[in-house]
Amino acid sequence: MKSDQDLYKQLRDLPKEQLWRSEVPRFDAASQRERMETVALIRALGTIFSRFGTDEEKAAVRGWLIALLKDPQEKIRRYAMAALPKIGGDEGVEAQMLSLLKENGGEREKRHLGRALEKIGGSATLAFMAQGESLPELTQQKVQAAIARRENPGTVELDALLPGKSGMQINLRCRRGLEKILGEEAEAQLDPSIFRLGPVRPGCVTLTPLKPFSLAMLYEMRCFATVGIRIGLIENGTGSEWEDALAGCIASSTARKIMLAATNGAPRYRVDLPARGHQRGAIRNVVQQAHALAPELLNDARQAPWSVDVTPVGSGPRKQRDVLVELRPRLYPDPRLEYRQDDVSAASHPPLAACMARLAAQASPDSEEPRQVVWDPFCGSGLELIERSMLGGVSAVHGTDLDPAAIGIARANFEAAGLENVSGMFTRCDFRNAEELAGIAPGSITLVITNPPLGRRIRVKDMPGLIADLLLAATKALEPGGLLIFTNPLRDGPSSPSLKLEYRQTVDLGGFDCQLEMYSKLVARGDGKIRMQKQ
Ligand SMILES: C[S@@+](CC[C@H](N)C(=O)[O-])C[C@H]1O[C@@H](n2cnc3c(N)ncnc32)[C@H](O)[C@@H]1O
Question: Residue 401: how many CA atoms within 13 Å on its side-chain side?
Fold first, then answer.
């Protein structure tokens, strides 16, 4: 006999029509014993029709599942309870579940009904609980959160003033290898009377607020990926003590004040735990405990404006490490990327594009007139060109890409960025033909900035050949003294006699390392030898 899980996997792969027209009637006509053996069908129906069912089909499946809530077998009722929220429960389903609760089911059934009501419950469930009817403690919090979410999903208020109390630590996170650029941006951008720069660690620049501050002040910066405000450090451990400590961090006065001050709507948060074994149970205990300490904070994984991130620190096996607990605003879309109309599948990580742009701007000589002419040979959605233009000094950008969709997206993003006095030209072509097709004349470009395909998401047959061609094309297009900045997936940098290495840094591009490199083009002397351009 197949296990429920094996059968579920098998049924999940069947066409939905077959499930509904053959498997469901077979299940309905089967004996009690056979129904118990094929209970996985209920789960498969919930999964498949929630994803692929039309409204009409979902309504039919919902009706079937509601009928199963009255099945004599507790296991069948439980499976139906779990499947209903996936299909989408309404007030009718809620009423059916509440009436089942009144019928004195066992503790296990109550627990499952509570979990289903956490997902679909509304005011009827709260009223039911207010009458003293017992449901799992967490259900009340979850239902309150769901009601709050439906009324107003809530967003983080960037302009709200947050308490900058002594000892508070803000962690600006970036990809490993980009800390120095991010630190320099923080130094240049932030008001030193409000923020003091602290230690720089791999992938993180720390700040201490000296006075009340707003997240908007931080989001003026473009080179960090996320911001986390430290709300605790918990010693390695497990069990209820560890869970209580995490609940204490969530309900701490720092976390409460921040969430209350800076949420438009109910302060809802999700918890991101590192894999610690029985994670689901641990999270339920933690958020239940946190709610007892701070009832105004609601745990809700869906569309939560805040995340409580739990990250192991130090070295050694993950499970034996202390953990840092941080509160992170969840901003979708990131306000810094408002220009982004669309995206390509291999788009650059936006803070990486911002860091590359910053590196370029710092290395370019100041001039009164915007004179930078920038080319991204593999422009994709255009992030590098836009980020560089935002830093000023640019008169024109050229984007080339093989993919016509990418060209349309880059153009739309560039227009949406509203970059005054910067002209944008986007051409669908192989970068090797940019001279003829995109009109990029030799010596006309001051900066080539690009993230080439790295062979991860898009397969590249001959990576060394591609990078060699990029160097050739960039060297030809650049004016003497012009800069080439790119992420190099190859270990060895180019050994072109016309290019001088100015910067190289290993950067984590999301699980694999690359070299972020910057070269300047040397100036050829009359005798054909090469010399440096004086800037
Ligand atoms: C890593 S993606 C660039 C992402 C881009 N920086 C962004 O933020 O969206 C690489 C791009 O190179 C393009 N590409 C690949 N081979 C090319 C070639 N020979 N000439 C021009 N573009 C090419 C791909 O279509 C892809 O859009």
Answer: 27
Q: Which residues are within 8 A (CB) of 396 and not within 5 positions of it... i.e. 6 or more apart? A: 373, 374, 422, 423, 424, 425
Q: How many Å lie between the centroid of ligand 1 and the Cα of residue 452?
A: 6
**pTM confidence score:** 0.84
- At 255, which helix (H) or strand (E)? helix 253-261
CA 298 to chain centre: 21
> Which residues does a 6 A CB cutoff place in the pocket of ligand 1?
344, 346-348, 353, 377-378, 380-381, 383-384, 400-403, 406, 430-431, 451, 453
Residue with tokens 């499976």: 79
Where helices occur in 262-403 by DSSP H, the ranges are 279-293, 350-363, 383-390
State the distance from the centre of ligand 1 to the C-alpha of 338, rounded, in angstroms.
22
- Per-residue pLDDT of 438-465, as tens digits, reads 989 999 999 999 999 987 767 788 999 9
Helix H, strand E, coil C: the string for 36-95 is HHCCHHHHHHHHHHHHHCCHHHHHHHHHHHHHHCCCCCHHHHHHHHHHHHHHCCCHHHHH
Tell me whether residue 444 is exposed, middle or buried, using C-beta atoms within 10 angstroms of its C-beta: 0 to 12, 13 to 18, 19 or more.
Answer: middle
Cα separations (Å) of 38 from 61, 78, 131, 349, 515? Answer: 17, 14, 38, 46, 54
Secondary-structure breakdown of the chain: helix, strand, coil percentages, each rounded to the nearest 5: 45, 20, 35
What Å distances lie between residue 391 and 180, 183, 222, 334, 530, CA to CA?
Answer: 18, 17, 11, 18, 31
Radius of gyration for the chain, computed over Cα atoms and rounded to the nearest angstrom: 29
User: What does the alpha-carbon distance between residue 521 and residue 497 come to, in Å, rounded to a whole number?
Assistant: 9
180-216: per-residue pLDDT in tens?
999 999 999 999 999 999 999 999 999 999 999 999 9
Host H or E run for residue 465? helix 463-477
Q: Which atom of ligand 1 is nearest to the CA of 409?
A: 9
User: In terms of pLDDT, which residue wins out, 343 or 102?
Assistant: 343
Q: Which of 402, 440, 471, 488 maximizes ligand 1 atoms within 8 Å of its Cβ, making it the mutation to test the pocket? A: 402
Average pLDDT, the chain: 91
Query: Which pLDDT score, from 0 to 100, does residue 217 have?
Result: 98
The whole-number pLDDT of residue 318 equals: 67
Whether the pLDDT of residue 119 is over 80: the answer is yes
Q: What is the mean pLDDT of residues 121-137?
A: 81
Query: How far is the centre of ligand 1, averaged over its atoms, from the C-alpha of 381 (Å)?
Result: 9
Degrees, nearest 5: CA angle 170-278-150: 65
